[in-house]
Amino acid sequence: MSEQLIKHFARFVEIKEANIPGILSFFQPISLLKKENLLREGSICTSHYFVVKGCLRLFFVNEKGVEQTIQFALENWWLTDYMAFQNQQVSNFYIQAVEKTEVLAISLSAQEQLFLQFPPLEKYFRLIYQRAYAASQLRIKYLYHFSREELYEQFITAYPEFIQRIPQYLLASFLGFTPEYLSELRKKKRS
Amino acid sequence: MSEQLIKHFARFVEIKEANIPGILSFFQPISLLKKENLLREGSICTSHYFVVKGCLRLFFVNEKGVEQTIQFALENWWLTDYMAFQNQQVSNFYIQAVEKTEVLAISLSAQEQLFLQFPPLEKYFRLIYQRAYAASQLRIKYLYHFSREELYEQFITAYPEFIQRIPQYLLASFLGFTPEYLSELRKKKRS
């Protein structure tokens, strides 16, 4: 399971064979059942998660008790509540497995140690954060710019693999639709 | 003007006195008049900008010809169109000076060279991107969660300095209001 993480590092930076065991010693494997929580609202966000297999979602529960998903993470994606993680504070989010999922977790202090011992991983995370921030800036543009129907179009074009794997009601929540509206939209596209 | 950049680096990482001239040689100072463009839609986004003095805004022009501001940057903030910058592509955004502004610009290739020559700056940018991404993730939550009125409340609490400096019509555009609605909201708050 850890081989995949090393492969992902190696896509961005050079990893010496001899350093692999040392690097991996900073990570903790966690297996989750479908709908199992990795993080709960009100608990300290201690870790940063790399998805080895499966799918996570980040959501909050609004005052009406409705779950609002704002992010998904498939294989090779990183996810956490970044503000709560960097400040080691209580989170306002949940992170839950959409399907049976395996992750590798690293704590903030372990991540800082990792950078000191293996400087190429500082570069790796600089690149990961840089790319995530770039995508996020564009997403904010889309949230301002696109109608809900256009958001759906953009999403299925950019991430076709999600449509196959993510239950309709979660996709609807992510896009800010009711499940009924999403179902109508899909019918319209097929016809 | 470059002293301020060094001070900002030194808040996050150790900078050796002897390295300062070498570090600064990667940056280009640019002075902008109020409303002068630093980046235009349709041009390649070559640089990353550090605001030394003044204020920048990032906006796009929608199909109705209306400018939609999605981000501001005051002193000590970094700004660019991150997706276009990292891919060295044509931008869909404008970056414009809200007031008389001084920035330091660095190109993508210079930034990569800077990291190779001065590794502590790799860490600095990892931290800058990490914090920016954390703030951006929270902002996406707010865009899903808050009514426009709540967004305004949240914004003036988090960034009181903006309210003083940024023209009302730009603030309205950023918050997705008409200027008239913002003016009504402000009257309501005062009464």
TrEMBL record, chains A, B:
Q: Which residues form the Cyclic nucleotide-binding domain?
A: 31-116
Instruction: List the InterPro entries.
Output: cNMP-bd_dom, cNMP-bd_dom_sf, RmlC-like_jellyroll
Q: Where are the transmembrane segments?
A: none
Q: Tell me where on the tree of life, at the top rank, the source sits.
A: Bacteria
What protein name applies here?
Crp/Fnr family transcriptional regulator
State the organism named in the record.
Answer: Adhaeribacter radiodurans
